[in-house]
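quick one, 235 residues, struct below
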Amino acid sequence: MADPAVSFVVPAKDEADYLPDALDSLRRQRTDRAFEVLVVDGDSDDATPEIAREYGATLVDQPDPDFADAGLADGGRRHSAIADARHRGAARASGDWLAFVDADTTVRADYLDAMLGFARAEGLAAASSRCRLVGPARATVMEATINRVFPRLRRPILPGFNLFVHREAYHAVGGFPDVPNEDTAFSRKLGREYATGYHPDALVETSARRIAASGLTGTLVHYLRLDYHRLRADY
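---
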């Protein structure tokens, strides 16, 4: 296979219920460009590794079993395992561009070409796009925040479940920092040095399972706590 233009990096731990749809959406990309898919397995207890292999993805091991979000039980001192997973995937990636997609996220068949064309045309080092949160109706509040607020910030927040970034820029700023709300921290750090933005037409779908489990208020409190610890870490 020719050297890939894009490397999809998918962090996953015990994601057997969601991962097939995510990988199927990547496999169905309508593009003439070469690309690769890397699944970073966080020591799963289910069939996540087997599913990754079944879909032809490169499996990257993440031996740390603690894949939970940072900043919950220990006041933000625990390392962010998902940031570590993304780092491991980026380190193994061969593409000029890195596309970080979560295991419960699906993309349209034109995603690769749309995001690559947009980033190049606009002179961006990184981009995200519109999203649809699949789940309870109350998730529309979070969806509207991502779609209408994040792109208008001076340094747009690029959610980790849908982040397209040039590999050189990613490594130049050190990748996702090991802090709570690592994607917000990364977006702000990257935005200080490089142009970033949102594709207005590309669309991905991602699960609103946290909102379904914790409610909108509980989810907002969760992310506010993470952001508090991010700010305390000077990000």
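The chain is about 40% helix and 20% strand.
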